[in-house]
Design a protein that fits this description.
- The complex is a heterodimer.
- Chain A has 21 helices and no strands.
- Chain A is mostly helical.
- Chain A is globular.
- Chain B is an alpha/beta fold.
- Chain B folds into two domains: 215 residues, 3-Layer(aba) Sandwich (Rossmann fold), CATH 3.40.50.300; 59 residues, Alpha-Beta Plaits.
- In chain B, the strands form three sheets. In chain B, strands 5-6-7-3-8-9 form a six-stranded mixed β-sheet, with helices on both faces.
- In chain B, helix 3 runs parallel beside helix 5.
- The chains are: A mainly alpha, B alpha/beta.
Chain lengths: 531, 299
C-alpha cells in the first residue's frame, strides 16, 4: 500500500510539464539572463579598479542598500554581481517555486481535480511528489544555467557554481515549504499566503541582521544562509548541508502530513459560515469587498510591517551618515540636501509602489478569474449591469491601493517621526510622498482593465508591462538608461515630493491616461461576449 | 402572448456554427422543454437570452425587450440557474442565496425557509464544501426564492438525487400554477416528459422538432409485442413496420402511427392471445432524430 501512494508520479510529472512548459522555460532562463545582464552592467559602470573600490566603499556605508540587498563580501565585479543579482533573484525564485508547488497541489485539490485523479491509478502522494520533483528540477536547471552563463562570461568557476546553487537552494527550500503549507489549509490562497509570509519574514530577518548588531538573525533565514555561502569570497560550501537538511525535513514533513489527512481537507478544519447574508451584502461592490477584504488586510499588514522596518532603517541610516561626513556626494545623489532619510524613503518607495501595482493588477484580474470560473454568469443574470460589476473591481483597486500605500507610509512616517521626535512634520510628508503614486498605479490598473475589456486573452500583458517597468528601474539605476526610455514608466513621472518640487501637472496627466485606459476597457467589456 | 420569441438566431464561434438559424417561441405560463444532446446549442441559446453572449444574426425578444440592450431591466423579472454552477468558495450557501436574490431585486423570506427545508440544505456551509448536488440546490433555491415572471433553468437537476429531483418537479409545478413561465433545458427525458407542455428538440445548432409531447409522439412509432395462436407470417412485407423479430407465435416490432390500424387488422388473422404496446418515450424520439441526422434512421 505504501508504495502505491506514489504511483502515477511520472504521469503527473509529464502532465505538469505539458501544462506549464512555457512558463517553466521562461522562469529557468530569466535568472541566468539577469545574472549576465547584471555582470555586464557592472563591467560598464565600473571600468577601473578605483571606481570599483569607490562604489564598494560607498555602497557598504548605505544601510538602505545593505538592508535591501545584503552585504558585499567580495569587492570584485563578480562579487558585486553575486551581491546584487542574488538578492532579488532568490526572492523571485523562492516565490516562484512556492507558488508553483501550491498551484499543482492544493489549487488542484481545491478545484476538485484530485478526486478525479485519485480515483484512477494515481496515488495520494503523487501530486506532491511530482510537483516537488518539477520544482527541484527547475531549480537545478536554474543553477546550471546561471553557473554556465557566468563561467562563460569569464567569472571564477567555483564562485559561479556556488552562486547558482545558492539561489537554487532557496528556490528548492521554498518549494518544500509550500509543500508543507499546502497540507495545512483547505484553501490554496492561504497556503500561498503562508509560504509568502515565511519568505517575507526571512527577508526581514536577513535585512535586520545585515544592518544591525544581531548578525546571528541571518541564520534563521534561508536568504541569510544563501548570502553566507559568499560566492567569489572563499565559498563556504558547508552551508549547503543546512539547505539539504532543511529541504529533506520539510519534504518528509509534507509527505507525512499529506498521508494523515483526507483528500480535499486540510489539517485545519473550516468553520461554518453565516446562515444568511449580512444586510449590507446587496450590491456587486459589497460582494467584491466580501470576497477580497481579507486579502486586502493581509496586503496591508505586509505593507505596514515593511513601513515600520523602513522607518526604523531611515533613522539608523541617518545616524550612520552623520558619522561619515565623506559620504556627501552619495547623499546628493540619493536625496540632495534634504536629508538622508528623505532619500532613503524615496528609494524604498520605488520598490513599495511596484508591489502596490501588483496588488492593483491582481485585483483587476480577479474579474477574469470570475469570468473563467463562470461565477460572473449568475451575477450578470440578475439586475446588475456590466458597468456596475466592473466598476466594483475598479473601486476596490483604487481604494485598496490607497489603503496599502497608507499602510506603508503611515507606520514608516510614524516610526521615523517618533525616533527623531518630529511626528507632526514627518508623518504627513511621508504619507504624501506615497499617496502621490496613486495615479501612476491606477495607470497600471487601467492597462489591466483595457486588456480585460478588449482582449481578455492578453491580460498577462499587464504583468509584462509591470515587469518591463521594474526592469527599466532596476537597470536604470546601474546603466545610464536614457530619459526617453525611463519616461515609458508611469512611476518616472510621479513627483518625488520628499526630494524635489511638487508639481500637479504630471499627476493630472497620469489620471487622464488612467481614465482613458479604464474607459476604453469598460467600452470593450460592454460590447463583448462573456465567457 | 409570447415571453420568448427567437427568430433565425445564429451564433458562430470563429468557423464553428453553434446556432444555425433557430426559431423558438415560448408562451406565457407554459413550461417549455428545450432538449438536445450535449453541445447541441442549448446553453448558447440561454446565454444569448440572458445578454451574456452577442448574437451574430436573427431576432430575439425576451419579455418584450431586447436581451442585450435591456439586460438589467429584464433581469429583474427573471431568474436563472446556470448549467455549470460555480459558487464563491468562501461564501456560505445562505449568503449566496440572499445575495443573488437581492441583486435581482428581493425575495420572500418564508419561501426561502421553506425551500431550504424541502431541499434539506444546510445554509451555513461554505460553498467549496458542498457536493455538486448541493451547489445545484443553492443555485435552484436562489432562483426560486424570488417572485419572477420567467425562470430560465439550464439542466437544473444535474447532480440531484432522485428524491431531490422529485422535489424540484413539485416546485416547478407550483410556480407554474401562479403563472410563471419556465424555460427548461435538459437532456433528462423523464424530467421533460413529466413537466413540459411543449418541447423543442435541438441538435447541432438546429431545431429539429417543436410541439407538444402528444404531437411529437404522433410522428413516431409505437413498440408492439404480440402473441398469437397461429405462427405469424408476412408481417415484414407490411409498410410502416420496423425492427421486426418473429419467433413462431411471438413477434416484436415497432410501427408508424399511421400504419397501426392496418397492422392490427392483419394480426387478427393469426388469432391474437396477448398484446402489449408502449408509446414512444422521449428517448425514442431523441434517438430517432439523432439518427435521422446521421442519415441511418430507416433501417
Amino acid at each position: 500500500m505504501k508504495l502505491n501512494a506514489y504511483t502515477g508520479t511520472a504521469a503527473l510529472f509529464r502532465l505538469i510539464l505539458r501544462r506549464d512548459w512555457l512558463v517553466l522555460l521562461v522562469c529557468v532562463i530569466l535568472p541566468a539572463l539577469l545574472a549576465v545582464a547584471t555582470a555586464a552592467a557592472f563591467i560598464q559602470l565600473l571600468p577601473s579598479a578605483a571606481s570599483l573600490e569607490a562604489f564598494v566603499f560607498d555602497t557598504a556605508n548605505i544601510p538602505a542598500e545593505m538592508a535591501l540587498l545584503g552585504r558585499i563580501y567580495a569587492p570584485t565585479i563578480a562579487g558585486l554581481t553575486a551581491w546584487r543579482w542574488s538578492a532579488y533573484s532568490a526572492v523571485l525564485v523562492g516565490l516562484g517555486s512556492a507558488l508553483f508547488v501550491v498551484r499543482h497541489t492544493r489549487t488542484q485539490e481545491e478545484a476538485g481535480r484530485f478526486e478525479l485523479l485519485d480515483a484512477t491509478v494515481v496515488g495520494r502522494q503523487a501530486a506532491l511528489s511530482a510537483s516537488l520533483l518539477v520544482a527541484f528540477g527547475a531549480n537545478v536547471v536554474i543553477a546550471a544555467l546561471v553557473a554556465g552563463g557566468l563561467i562563460v562570461y569569464g567569472f571564477p568557476a567555483a564562485g559561479s557554481v556556488a552562486l547558482g546553487l545558492s539561489v537554487a537552494a532557496v528556490g528548492a527550500t521554498f518549494a518544500a515549504i509550500a509543500g508543507v503549507a499546502a497540507q495545512l489549509t483547505e484553501s490554496a490562497g492561504t497556503a500561498k499566503g503562508i509560504a509568502v509570509a515565511i519568505l517575507g519574514i526571512g527577508y526581514l530577518l536577513r535585512a535586520a541582521s545585515d544592518i544591525g548588531e544581531h548578525n546571528e538573525l541571518s541564520w534563521l533565514s534561508p536568504l541569510g544562509w544563501m548570502q553566507q555561502i559568499r560566492p567569489y569570497a572563499d565559498e563556504r560550501w558547508w552551508i549547503f548541508i543546512l539547505f539539504i537538511g532543511a529541504i529533506t525535513i520539510l519534504t518528509v514533513t509534507g509527505f507525512a502530513l499529506s498521508s494523515r489527512r483526507d483528500v480535499g481537507s486540510g489539517l485545519v478544519r473550516p468553520r461554518p459560515g453565516p446562515a444568511s447574508a449580512a444586510p449590507s451584502l446587496r450590491s456587486p461592490a459589497a460582494l467584491v469587498w466580501r470576497l477580497h477584504r481579507r486579502s486586502l488586510l493581509a496586503w496591508a499588514i505586509g505593507f505596514a510591517a515593511f513601513g515600520v522596518v523602513t522607518g526604523d532603517l531611515a533613522k539608523a541610516g541617518a545616524d550612520q551618515f552623520a558619522a561619515s561626513p565623506q559620504l556627501t556626494s552619495l547623499l546628493a545623489r540619493l536625496g540632495g540636501s534634504s536629508g538622508v532619510s528623505d532619500g532613503f524613503f524615496t528609494l524604498a518607495l520605488t520598490i513599495v509602489v511596484e508591489i502596490a501595482a501588483v496588488y492593483a493588477i491582481v485585483t483587476m484580474l480577479q474579474m477574469q478569474a470570475e469570468e473563467k470560473e463562470a461565477r460572473i454568469d449568475p451575477v450578470l443574470a440578475t439586475a446588475v449591469g456590466r458597468l456596475r460589476w466592473a466598476g466594483s473591481y475598479l473601486l476596490l483597486a483604487a481604494v485598496g491601493t490607497t489603503v496599502v500605500l497608507a499602510a506603508f507610509s503611515v507606520p514608516a512616517g510614524l516610526t521615523y517621526g517618533l525616533s527623531i521626535g518630529n511626528v507632526g512634520y514627518e508623518l504627513p510628508r511621508v504619507f504624501a510622498a506615497a499617496i502621490v503614486y496613486l495615479p501612476a498605479i491606477l495607470v497600471m490598473a487601467g492597462i489591466a482593465m483595457a486588456l480585460y475589456g478588449l482582449v481578455p486573452k492578453l491580460t498577462f500583458v499587464s504583468w509584462g508591462a509591470l515587469l518591463g517597468i521594474i526592469v527599466i528601474e532596476l537597470l536604470g539605476e546601474i546603466f545610464q538608461v536614457s530619459q526617453s526610455i525611463q519616461n515609458i514608466s508611469p512611476f518616472t513621472h510621479v513627483p518625488k515630493v520628499l526630494v524635489s518640487e511638487f508639481s500637479a501637472t504630471p499627476l493630472i496627466l497620469l489620471v487622464a491616461v488612467a481614465l482613458a485606459l479604464i474607459i476604453t476597457g469598460l467600452i470593450g467589456f460592454q460590447r463583448r461576449s462573456i465567457g | 402572448m409570447s415571453v420568448i420569441e427567437i427568430h433565425n438566431l445564429t451564433k458562430r464561434y470563429g468557423k464553428h456554427v453553434a446556432l444555425d438559424g433557430i426559431d423558438l417561441e415560448v408562451e406565457q405560463g407554459e413550461v417549455f422543454g428545450f432538449i438536445g444532446p450535449n453541445g447541441a446549442g442549448k446553453t448558447t441559446t440561454l446565454r444569448i437570452l440572458l445578454g451574456l453572449l452577442r448574437k451574430n444574426a436573427g431576432e430575439v425578444t425576451l419579455l418584450g425587450g431586447d436581451p442585450w440592450r435591456d439586460a438589467v431591466a429584464l433581469h429583474r423579472r427573471l431568474a436563472y440557474v446556470p448549467g455549470d454552477v460555480n459558487l464563491w468558495p468562501y461564501l456560505s450557501g445562505g449568503e449566496v442565496i440572499d445575495l443573488l436574490a437581492r441583486l435581482r431585486g428581493g425575495f420572500d423570506q418564508s419561501r426561502r425557509d421553506e425551500l431550504l427545508k424541502r431541499f434539506k440544505l444546510d445554509p451555513t456551509r461554505k460553498c467549496r464544501t458542498y457536493s455538486k448536488g448541493n451547489q445545484q440546490k443553492v443555485a435552484l433555491i436562489a432562483a426560486l426564492v424570488s417572485n419572477v415572471e420567467l425562470l430560465i433553468l439550464d439542466e437544473p437537476t444535474l447532480g440531484l438525487d432522485p428524491l431531490m429531483e422529485a422535489i424540484f418537479r413539485e416546485c416547478v409545478t407550483k410556480v407554474k400554477q401562479v403563472g410563471t413561465t419556465v424555460l427548461l433545458s435538459s437532456h433528462i427525458l423523464a424530467e421533460v416528459e413529466a413537466l413540459c407542455d411543449r418541447i423543442s428538440i435541438i441538435n447541432e445548432g438546429k431545431i429539429v422538432e417543436t410541439g407538444t409531447l402528444a404531437e411529437l409522439r404522433h410522428l413516431t412509432r409505437t413498440t408492439v409485442s404480440v402473441k398469437t395462436r397461429r405462427p405469424i407470417t408476412g408481417l415484414a412485407r407490411l409498410p410502416g413496420v420496423y425492427s421486426l423479430t418473429v419467433d413462431g407465435t411471438h413477434a416484436r416490432f415497432s410501427v408508424d402511427a399511421e400504419a397501426i390500424n392496418r397492422v392490427m387488422r392483419y394480426l387478427v388473422q393469426f388469432d391474437v392471445r396477448a398484446l402489449t404496446s408502449a408509446p414512444p418515450t422521449l428517448e425514442d424520439l431523441f434517438l430517432r432524430y439523432y439518427k435521422l441526422h446521421e442519415g441511418d434512421a430507416t433501417q
